[in-house]
Amino acid sequence: MADKEKSEMDTGSDDLEMDKDTTTTDDGNDGDAVRAELEDTRKALKKANREAADRRRKLEQYEKEDNERREAELSEIEKVTAKLEKAQAGQVAAESKLALKLQHDAFFGTASDAGLVWASEQARRDVVRLLDWDDVDAESMPDLLKEIKADRPYLFKSPHLPEIDGKKKTTVTKAEADEADIETAARRYGVPYAP
Q: Per residue in 122-181, pLDDT tens?
């Protein structure tokens, strides 16, 4: 047994040295019992370490899954928050467009009430672009229309045709207009013309 103990020392194993220390009793059965107990303890320790490692792995997995779930919930909340902010911005833009449209309608209604007729739809669009709508309010609209009528009369139709050379303008039929154009062209180019 001494040779066995010496060979165990040569391996340099701490566990074997512990066996050597515990087997120094005079009774050989006692040493075998201690070794068996030591083996049982080592097995129990390995089992406990394995169980602890399994628990750590499971705990890490649960924590990882919990973090992923929280991140998913947070990203869902962020998505909903972003959609809400976008909807609120859209609502603000729509409200400002509506207010501007109502202001335009009030302006054109005031123009109609004043008896002004726009020359064309393009004239209406030009007025919309021309004015600074932040400064236009209901009280200033009649005065503003008078200013526009004085500064840009081409934007409005005349309610009646003006008198030129003291003669009232009359309506001319197409045939008369063509005849007049032919006569004017003939005079201009010195060609005799007889209607």
A: 888 888 888 888 888 888 888 888 888 888 888 887 655 555 666 555 555 555 657 777
- Alpha carbon distances (Å) from 10 to 15, 28, 73: 12, 22, 61
- This prediction has a pTM of 0.42
| Structural domain contains residue 123 | yes
3 in a structural domain: no
Q: Could you give the 3-state DSSP secondary structure of residue 121?
A: helix
Q: What is the reported pLDDT for 180?
A: 76
Given this model, what pLDDT does residue 174 score? Answer: 54
The domain in which residue 150 lies consists of 15-23+30-189
Whole-number Å distance between alpha carbons of 151 and 145:
10
How far apart are the C-alpha atoms of 182 and 11, rounded to whole Å? 132
**10 part of a folded domain:** no
Q: Is residue 125 part of a domain?
A: yes
The distance in angstroms from the start CA to the end CA of the chain is 154
CA distance 157 to 112: 12
| Number of structural domains found in the chain | 1
